[in-house]
Request: fold
Amino acid sequence: PWRANALQSLNHCFVLGHFTAMVWKSSTKFGVGKAVASDGSTFVVARYFPAGNITNQGHFQANVLSPKS
Reply:
């Protein structure tokens, strides 16, 4: 049930999408890069492999697990 609600919200909330990408069970590699532009703007990029956040039926439920108590 909490995962069903999260999947429904995934299309509406980018923050949730970043969280689920980080906890995606089948993603085994994670990289982050940061750069500062000449105007002082900071850019941060995260890459996951294999890519997660697949919303096809069953993928979300299999890869975003319920919290352990």
